[in-house]
Fold this sequence. Notes:
2 domains; single chain; two-stranded antiparallel ribbon; 123 residues; 60% helix; mainly alpha; 2 strands; Arc Repressor Mutant, subunit A
Amino acid sequence: MKFDENIPIYLQIKAEIEKAIISQDIAEESKIDSIRELAKFYKVNPQTISSAYNELLNDDILYKKRGIGTFVKSGARESLLEMKTEKYLEHDLKKVLLEGKNLGISLNKVKEIINEIYKGGVE
């Protein structure tokens, strides 16, 4: 993985883990790689992975079983989808729509584009 130098690495790794949970590449209640294993995989300091895991633990996405490892919490996928949907609607989509409005793009044109995308016409 090539890291974006403008975003802390631990946040990029956190995002990768979240994406894997959402896509179900990592199943709920499954054990995830140890900090050392993931640090070796990403070729980063174990503290970087620890920071990513701590964020996910604080977000109630992961949990630890003492002496066994770190696991994906049941319901984590749904929680992530809700959090990401809320962030998208409240921040990203609003920002784009406001920019379009400021550029003078009509509501009808926006609706046309939305309909085209949702019907599968635009990628």
